[in-house]
Known about the structure:
Blueprint: E1 7-13, E2 22-28, E3 36-45, H1 48-55, E4 93-94, E5 98-106, E6 118-121, E7 124-125, E8 138-139, E9 151-155, E10 159-161, H2 168-171, H3 175-186, E11 195-198, H4 204-215, E12 219-224, H5 229-235, E13 239-242, H6 248-256, E14 260-265, H7 272-278, E15 279-287, H8 300-305, E16 309-312, H9 320-329, E17 337-342, H10 346-355, E18 361-365
Parallel strand pairs: 11-12, 11-14, 12-13, 14-15, 15-16, 17-18
Antiparallel strand pairs: 1-2, 1-4, 3-5, 3-9, 3-18, 5-6, 6-10, 7-8
Amino acid sequence: xxxxxxxxxxxxxxxxxxxxxxxxxxxxxxxxxxxxxxxxxxxxxxxxxxxxxxxxxxxxxxxxxxxxxxxxxxxxxxxxxxxxxxxxxxxxxxxxxxxxxxxxxxxxxxxxxxxxxxxxxxxxxxxxxxxxxxxxxxxxxxxxxxxxxxxxxxxxxxxxxxxxxxxxxxxxxxxxxxxxxxxxxxxxxxxxxxxxxxxxxxxxxxxxxxxxxxxxxxxxxxxxxxxxxxxxxxxxxxxxxxxxxxxxxxxxxxxxxxxxxxxxxxxxxxxxxxxxxxxxxxxxxxxxxxxxxxxxxxxxxxxxxxxxxxxxxxxxxxxxxxxxxxxxxxxxxxxxxxxxxxxxxxxxxxxxxxxxxxxxxxxxxx
Length: 366
């Protein structure tokens, strides 16, 4: 077992607000308690959760779109409900859900043979009771310290062994985006031959959803910036629609030669109603985010008279991460590493993430 240093470098979130709340400093190196492992972090991916939590965008007191305060933070927030589960968090906090590395220490009750294992962290810390209750189920890097550090710890069952030739940085593109996308896709139960439209298709979740739908035999129509079209076609989309098109519903229907079976949405805002309108009778809509705006007008007649199914997708069921790791190990999923930054340059990494000019995921390395 590795002798752990007393101190480590970590990126500390000191409070809700702008990028100035991110401080690179020394922190106590974690020690494993019963049932836990300590991981020497090789890489950790960035996600919208990092931005949303830092800015307290989740707070119901905030009526602004995410992009309006992603760098500077928001004026109207309530610290008591600043997280995804409508609760408060403690500061300083080490964020980072997508940790990849090697187990270097184990707590009581954990097989010492796990030391030396290369692992990916399953970020969903589900309870053994009602795991759909956010009070019982936490998220790595939100309700407890995550992977934006030289070392991190998590319960042993959430450290998933991975056997892959991919680099740590490549593996760090998967956990949050692909478990989210797998849950998003599963909520609509796509069948071979069905047509799926995916918004935000060039981001981490959207690009993952393209691959997961293609593995299920679906035809995919991607909605993204025009500059990403060729990359999305290479990834498996059959058609790409410019996200700035004025008539999104018409463009979807033209690309699909009619209505679509499924809409997977991470954008929300003004794209919501065109997606609903483009669904066929009995169509399914699922969302795991609303980076384009959290408010939308909704014609309830579409829901009622078209027999639609609408679902949200946040907390991932047990076993989701294990399925994703299995697909990584067989080569069924392709890592999309957009850029890598040193951990100390987290502010610059988040600025690049917020700009949304990248394709795939951005990763930091200690």
